[in-house]
Specification:
The complex is a heterodimer of chains A (about 140) and B (about 500).
Chain A: E1 5-6, H1 11-17, E2 22-28, H2 33-48, E3 53-59, H3 65-69, E4 77-82, E5 85-91, H4 96-109, E6 116-119, E7 128-131
Parallel strand pairs in A: 1-3, 2-3
Antiparallel strand pairs in A: 2-4, 4-5, 6-7
Chain B: E1 15-18, E2 46-49, E3 71-74, E4 77-80, E5 84-88, H1 93-104, E6 108-113, H2 116-123, H3 135-146, E7 150-154, H4 161-171, E8 175-178, H5 185-188, H6 192-216, E9 221-227, E10 250-253, E11 256-259, H7 272-291, E12 294-300, E13 302-304, H8 330-340, E14 344-347, E15 353-358, H9 359-370, E16 379-384, E17 387-390, H10 391-406, E18 412-415, H11 433-438, H12 446-457, H13 460-468, E19 488-491, H14 494-508
Parallel strand pairs in B: 5-6, 5-8, 6-7, 8-9, 9-12, 12-16, 13-15, 14-18
Antiparallel strand pairs in B: 1-2, 3-4, 10-11, 15-17, 18-19
Helix pairs in contact in B: 1-9, 4-6, 6-7, 8-10, 8-12, 10-12, 10-14
Classes of the chains: A alpha/beta (about 140), B alpha/beta (about 500).
């Protein structure tokens, strides 16, 4: 049984847009060799991130309306959604480490859904926002 | 759980795709499936089943093979009931064997051949050592003894493209197995005429086939015979992946890194024949990308053996078996040398390592792949082997079995290597897809198959036919263009050789 969720037209809103969690969606095509080679990597990713980030796939040929909505110009395109909003993306085949890096970097930079802690400015430095790193520890 | 139970109509060749949507994502192609439109708009690809049109339009992902009554459980996973399979090159060693194998399992088999293989072998002064009947007699025997009807046409896939087109239109195959290529490295190295003939037949014949499939049966899968020889033997020892790099293979350069996932792995062919196979790979890969064809590229290792239940049933059903320098594969050739008293020939050091697969196991693999069609547009490659051996080890193995089981006096010799290749090299190959994704299990034991070959080769008729043409075994085609028989470098001390070999293989195991 696959750990990745295979999305359809109708399930996209429930699985991706209507959730407060973080979701990685791979937009892919049957004819795309790099997409096929990503399958085991996404399975591993889904296992590693279980409970933290949901891993989903959407076949762009079967459901082509999404390519204009999310500006998919080539496949595979990975889009990180947080709270239903696209917050990061990467195009082309990626190794496990690279995808982990993308997710960490993207979610670490998004303050919107996490409590923001104001850190007192130290001498010579302006105040800065730090994301309370709940999910990426 | 069958390997293809959760495949869906998205993979099935009995489906017409429908819905007014772009042929491919991202706007690279404007072709549309215009004949039907999804009631809900132009939002997704739908399917219509050619076998069960009463279902109407539906989501192709919604029915799996294990739920569909047209896919029935067979010995190699679910199989499409009465699936129409066309075999190109049906008169050959593999083609004829597969025709009977599939026919026995309930597939509807058709095939074409131009008898080139018979002509090429005759031209080299050789003959199939296992006598085979004329096609008409073969077809009659298949019908009479096995109850298998095979629809056959004599067609040259390159020279008679229109006739092939008409036959494909008539049969509408749901899978096409492409064995109709010249399979010989030495034959392609004889001279310019032979090199050109091999590349023309293989490369251009296949290219024409791809166009024909695009026009007539784009939903069928093309199962095309490639070869492990496309990869060569990289001296770095880099693993030979299955056609493409996995996503966790990375290129590091200039303090940057990229995933190589999905890129074709480098090819290093070592004859003009192998170059033709590499060109085929690119042509199939591109055709899948451009037109949504579906293809398995079979990187088959060196094949050996004589046995399937069907071909062994009667002499009229036997498949051909060649032992000459051009068309004989190494294990088959060693056994033929052993029964006629010619020392088994190692080229150069004789430490070439290759992947091997037995005839019967190869048939199982092909059936499992036919039953698991790729997705629309998917080009996939598998390394079709079941074991890895050095040539020296195989010579020792044949010598031991010949001596112990059949009391034959056997010698092994090293001869000059007429090829340009490394005769001692590292070798690491991945061959996990067939067992892990397609449920392939090795059934043939190497020793048992070699013994079975000895039994057949020692029958009066076959032994006499080997004797008649044994001059054709020793190579005389040099990659450099020289035309002379190779000379012996050394006659090996068999006992010492076998002892060393056993130690080596014990350590490695």
């Amino acid at each position: 049984m696959s750990n990745c969720t295979r999305l359809t037209n109708s399930s996209f809103s429930d699985e991706v847009l209507g959730v407060s969690d973080s979701v990685l969606v791979e937009f892919w095509g049957s004819w795309c060799p790099p997409c096929k080679m990503m399958e085991p990597v996404l399975e591993t990713l889904a296992e590693r991130l279980a409970g933290r980030v949901k891993i989903c796939k959407l076949n762009i040929d079967q459901y082509p309306a999404f390519r204009s909505t999310y500006h998919i110009m080539g496949v595979p395109t990975f889009v990180v959604f947080d709270g239903g909003k696209p917050v990061g993306r990467a195009i082309g085949a990626h190794s496990l480490q690279q995808l982990l890096g993308l997710i960490d970097a993207t979610l670490a930079e998004r303050p919107a859904v996490r409590p923001i802690v104001e850190v007192p400015a130290s001498p010579g430095e302006v105040g800065r926002a730090v994301v309370a790193n709940e999910t990426n520890s | 759980m069958e390997h293809n139970g959760k495949y869906t109509c998205w993979n099935c060749p009995a489906i017409d795709l429908a819905g007014k949507v772009d042929f491919r994502a991202c706007g690279q192609s404007g072709k549309q499936f215009e004949k039907k439109t999804d009631a809900s708009g132009e939002t997704q690809i739908l399917a219509e089943c050619k076998r069960r049109p009463e279902i109407g339009l539906f989501d192709p992902m919604s029915i799996s093979f294990d739920e569909c009554p047209e896919w029935i459980k067979g010995p190699c996973g679910y199989q499409l009931r009465n699936m129409r399979v066309m075999i190109l090159g049906i008169d050959g060693y593999l083609g004829w064997t597969l025709a009977l194998w599939l026919g026995g399992m309930g597939y509807r088999v058709s095939g074409v051949d131009n008898y080139n293989r018979r002509e090429w072998v005759k031209e080299r002064g050789a003959q199939t050592i296992v006598p085979i009947s004329r096609m008409n007699d073969r077809l009659a025997a298949a019908k009479e003894l096995l109850g298998i009807d095979i629809e056959f046409r004599q067609i040259d896939i390159f020279e008679q493209r229109q006739r092939l087109r008409e036959f494909i239109e008539e049969v509408r195959p749901e899978a096409v197995v492409h064995y109709a290529e010249c399979p010989s490295a030495p034959y392609s190295m004889i001279d310019a005429e032979h090199a050109i003939a091999v590349q023309k037949n293989n490369v251009l014949g296949t290219l024409g086939l791809l166009f024909t499939m695009k026009d007539l049966v784009p939903e069928s899968s093309l199962i095309k015979l490639g070869t492990m020889g496309e990869y060569g033997t990289p001296l770095t020892g880099r693993p030979l992946f299955e056609g493409m790099f996995p996503a966790d293979a990375e290129l590091h350069w200039d303090n940057r890194q990229w995933s190589l996932g999905g890129e074709l792995i480098p090819r290093d062919p070592h004859s003009f024949y192998h170059v033709s196979k590499v060109q085929d790979t690119f042509n199939c890969y591109e055709a899948c990308k451009y037109w949504w064809l579906r293809s398995f590229d079979i990187m088959q290792g060196v094949i050996f053996g004589v046995h399937t239940d069907q071909v062994a049933r009667d002499n009229r059903l036997r498949t051909r078996l060649d032992i000459d320098e051009c068309f004989g594969t190494v294990i088959n050739r060693f056994v033929a040398q052993a029964v006629t008293g010619i020392p088994l020939t190692l080229y150069g050091q004789g430490k070439q390592i290759r992947g091997y697969i037995a005839l019967r196991d190869a048939m199982q693999c092909m059936t499992r792949l036919i039953n698991a069609p790729p997705e629309p547009g998917q080009y996939a490659a598998v390394n079709q082997i079941s074991g890895i051996y050095s040539v020296r080890h195989l010579a020792c193995k044949v010598a031991q079995i010949g001596q112990k089981n059949f009391g034959l006096p056997i010698q092994i010799q090293r001869v000059e290597n007429p090829r340009v290749e490394a005769d001692e090299h590292p070798f690491e190959v991945l061959y996990e897809k067939l067992p892990k994704q397609f449920g392939f299990e090795t059934k043939v034991d190497l020793d048992e198959e070699i013994a079975r070959m000895f039994e057949l080769f020692l029958t009066d008729e076959v032994r006499a036919r080997i004797e008649q043409r044994k001059h054709a075994i020793i190579p005389r085609t040099w990659w450099s263009g020289i035309k002379r028989q190779v000379e012996q470098l050394e006659l090996l001390n068999l006992e010492a050789e076998i002892r060393d070999d056993e130690q080596l293989y014990t350590i490695n195991e």
